[in-house]
Amino acid sequence: MHLCENMWRWPYSGAVGTMLLLLGSISAQDVSAQLSCQAAEVAQNITQPQYNSILNTKADAASLVPFVQSFLYTVQPDPFPEGIFLEIIKDPQQVQSNKGLMTQILTYEVGFLVCIAIGILYIVLMPIIGFFVACCRCCGNCGGKMYQKQTSYINSLRRTLYFSVFAITIIIFAGNICMFRSNEDLKESMNQSPSDLNNTIGDMHTFLLSVPQQVENVVNESYRTVQEVTRNLDDIGRQLGKKIQQRFRGTLDPALQSVKRLHNETLNTSDQLDQMNSSLVQLQSSIDRTEANISVVRDQINRTLSNPGCKDCRQLTADVEKLRLDITISAPSLHEFQSAVDEVIKANLLSEISEVETFFDTIPEKVTNETEDLVKNSKEQLSNIKKQVLQISQDLHLSALDDASKTLNKVHSAVDTYLTGARRLEDIGWSVGVVLCCVILLVVVCNILGLILGPLGFSPKVDPTNRSSTSNYGGIFLMTSAGLSFLFSWLFMIIVLVLFLLGGNVYTLICRPWSNGELLQFIDTPGLIPNFELGSALGLKSKINLSHVYRDCKQNHPLWTTFRLYELIDLGNVLNVSKYTAQVDKEFENTNITLSSANILSPELIKKLENISSKATDFNGTAITNQMNDILSINLNKTAEKLDNTSLKQPTAMKNELQNEALKLRLIQADIETTIFPQVINLKSSIRDLQSTSKKINGTVGEVLRKTQAAQDFLNTSTTQIVKTESRKFLNCQLDYFTAYTDWAKTMITQQLGRCGPVALAVDSIENVLCVNIVESLNAFWFSLGWCIVFFIPSIIFSMKLAKYYRRMSYSDVFENHIVMNHIAQAQMKIGISVGQN
Predict the structure, then answer these.
(1) Torsion of CA 267, 271, 273, 278, to 10 degrees
(2) What is the pTM of this model?
(3) Could you say which of 392, 524, 593, 628 would form a disulfide bridge with 370 (CB–CB 3.0 to 4.6 Å)?
(4) Which of 28-32, 138-142, 209-213, 632-636 has the lowest mean pLDDT?
(5) Lowest mean pLDDT: which of 221-225, 367-371, 392-396, 533-537?
(6) Higher confidence at residue 94 or residue 284?
(7) 3-class secondary structure, 26
(8) What pLDDT is stored for residue 394 in this prediction?
(9) Is a pLDDT exceeding 50 seen at residue 154?
């Protein structure tokens, strides 16, 4: 028996355990597509959580934002004052005592100081001017006297004043609309802010919780990987054994099939031979019986012909002597063929190949038995690997994320408490804003009523003292507008200054540097936060600043690149499988799988097959067929006819004897035709079939000898190499699992794990809530209010002047054809009292 052996090994050193620990720390996706062995179950990507934060901006207030920002940039064009803030943070107590620092602050805020000075000047002068105007008008001056001089250009002047007041009113009304809109936006922003902040904090919670969940998925995925390899090891007999069997099948199956086909053909040939021998015996028996009958009749005819009274009977003697069926069928080649077939059947071809089939069928069992110790040791190591994988969570210090989550909960509670009070203040602020808007609207309405009623009741030809009540009311509304403007404008300016200082400084010191990145760069200033440096806290060699983290998170980068974890872990070296190749080969060579090769056909059986092939070739069916032809050539009826013809010449008694003997010959001939001839015909057909079968079996024997010899040579020379090759493939299959996992580990760890987009989104959401929604709405409100009260000044001037053109005068002045009709020589004007004038 030929022995072959195959060596393969499974890695189970401590270093390989570390490799598997890291290989398990990934999400294996579509790995099975990369393996040439049995496909593993396809794993899914690391699940990325769903977040709720959406940046909501107020489009209504956005129309004023460019104007407000442009104004604030004009007021404060300087960049973020890092130096000033560093000095303040360094020693907050020195702000008032440090004159240099105070000078820097005042210099930086010079734009705001100028605006404050202008505002204070407005606040001081407006009530004073209003008071003096009121007193002046009460004394009949400053337009207070109910008298209007009539001139040639009075109508043009009235129209100019009218359109001036109209334009100014439209401008104030536009500002008032912006006030209403920005006030509503501010309220909506404050109402929406809790929801936005809660979503932001919720997203941060989700992010912090997702990282441990992803790590847990990673650990579970590593368990699945180990379990998959463990299942393969448990099933090594079937998997590796089937592969070896498949390699044998290509050569061994055709040989075994040909032997089985030859076995069936020999059985069929043996049946044909048995049937032919039986037919030959039966035919020979019929021939012997017929020969005996012919011999009796022949003797009777000879006696009759030898009677002296028989005329011309001597000439039939020769024909009568030919009446013989003395035939003995001989077939020596047939018997030799039969003997060869019987020897092959007796040898039992199926029992001969059963040894090979047993060898073939027991390959999986032998592989299992030969690798039992190896599988046991490997499974013990895989069990240790599962225990090591459990340390991943501890090594990653995930408890820090729990602390961060607790801090977020506290922040969430504090924010809820603050926002509850802020909403109450906002309700008050919104009500105050509505009142301010309504006061401005009241001024606008007074102007509009004055502009409508004045022209509606005005007639240029009517004496000023006789102007209609409609026109007079129009003038009164214009004066009311001016009075309200004097009364509230300075108060509104106080509100504008307060909101301007608050909103303007928040924008220039927080929102604008936040938007352009200066604020994050300031936070990154070394020493700003005592005893804190992000890179050192993470154990990195290089420094990491928050602006870098925000920029990476803005692009949703993973933690690996954002926090430069590659400085802590050399992932390429840790996941390098090539350094284990030498150990893999050594283990492979030290594990043997021994398969004993079997002989397909014994030498004795081969000789018997060669003998049956030779006898099948030597089988001569033609000789037997020729003997059958001799039997078919017998015709006793001719002799019977000659006896009938001769009987016609004989006496009655002799005639009757010859005719009776002729009748007997005819009866014997009939028996031959009905009994022997069919047997001969059937036997000839069987001989032809047997000749065809002998040729076929001869070819089959040649095919069997050729294929079994090729299969035997294949088993003797290739079994060792097949076992070794397939064992190597199985080993590579298991290594391919981990090689593929290594590639996916690099992808998942460096590209998928802990994508920090929610962190940047949280920062943007806070900026959006504070700056875009609240501060911009607030700035739009004071800007709109300031806009209105600035235009109160021309509105007061032009409204008071225009009112005199519509109000009913107490004194009349007549102008006609450029000549004053009541001119007095002493350059004095005769004053007449209009009847009915108030």
Answers:
(1) 160
(2) 0.63
(3) 593
(4) 28-32
(5) 392-396
(6) 284
(7) coil
(8) 59
(9) yes
DSSP state of 772: I
Give the pair of three-digit tokens for residue 51: 């977040």
* Residue 264 near residue 325, CB atoms below 8 Å: no
DSSP letters, 39-108, are PPPPBPPPPPPP--------TTGGGTHHHHHHHHHHH--S---HHHHHHHHH-GGGTTT-HHHHHHHHHH
Compute how many other C-beta atoms are within 10 angstroms of the C-beta atom of residue 598: 17
- The alpha carbon of residue 536 and the mean position of all alpha carbons in its chain are separated, in whole angstroms, by 37
Rounded distance, CA 347 to CA 340, Å? 11
Distances (CA, A) of 673 to 119, 452, 635, 669, 670: 150, 147, 9, 6, 5
Q: Which amino acid is at 49?
A: P
Structure tokens at 655: 């005639």
Closest of 267, 273, 264 to residue 333, by C-alpha = 273
Taken as a whole, the chain contains a residue count of 838
Contacts of 821 (CB under 8 A, 6+ apart): 814
Please return the burial class of 676, using the count of CB atoms within 10 Å of its CB with bins 0-12, 13-18 and 19+.
Answer: buried
**C-alpha span between 19 and 737 (Å, rounded):** 12
d(CA 234, CA 376): 9
Q: Return d(Cα 564, Cα 417) in angstroms, integer.
A: 38
Q: Taken in order 293, 297, 300, 306, is the CA torsion positive or negative? A: negative
In eight-state DSSP terms, residue 833 is B
Q: How far is Cα 803 from Cα 464, in angstroms, rounded to an integer?
A: 12
| Alpha-carbon distances of 319 from 293, 308, 500, 631, 643, rounded to whole Å | 17, 19, 158, 18, 10
Asked if 119 contacts 111 with a C-beta cutoff of 8 angstroms, the reply is no
**Of all helices (H) and strands (E), which one includes residue 5?**
strand 2-7
Give me the amino acid identity at 132: F
Tell me how far CA of residue 771 lies from CA of 193, 422, 495, in angstroms. 11, 16, 20
Give the list of residues 6+ apart from residue 244 with CB closer than 8 angstroms, or none: 363, 367, 595, 722, 723, 726
Using CA atoms, how far apart are residues 610 and 257, in angstroms rounded to an integer?
18
820 has pLDDT over 60: no
Of 407-411, 682-686, 736-740, which gets the smallest average pLDDT? 736-740
Rg of the Cα trace of the chain? 62
Q: How far, CA to CA in Å, does 217 sit from each of 189, 212, 382, 486, 749?
A: 40, 9, 19, 72, 13
The CA-based dihedral angle spanning residues 35, 41, 45, 48, taken in that order and rounded to the nearest 10 degrees:
-170
Q: What stretches of 556-602 show up as alpha helix (H) in DSSP?
A: 559-562, 571-574, 581-590
Smallest Cα–Cα separation from 500: which of 791, 789, 87, 763? 789
Distance of CA 620 to CAs 608, 609, 625, Å? 20, 19, 9
3-state secondary structure at position 816 = strand
Per DSSP, the three-state class of 3 is: strand
pLDDT in tens, 173-206: 999 999 999 888 888 888 777 777 778 888 888 8
- What's the rounded Cα separation, in Å, for the pair 238 and 375? 14
User: 3-state secondary structure string, 449-477?
Assistant: HHHHHHHHHCCCCCCHHHCCHHHHHHHHH
The secondary structure of 129-185, three-state, reads HHHHHHHHHHCCCCCCCCECCCCCCHHHHHHHHHHHHHHHHHHHHHHHHHHHHHHHH
Q: DSSP secondary-structure letter at 576? A: -
d(CA 406, CA 205): 9
* DSSP 8-state symbol, 565: G
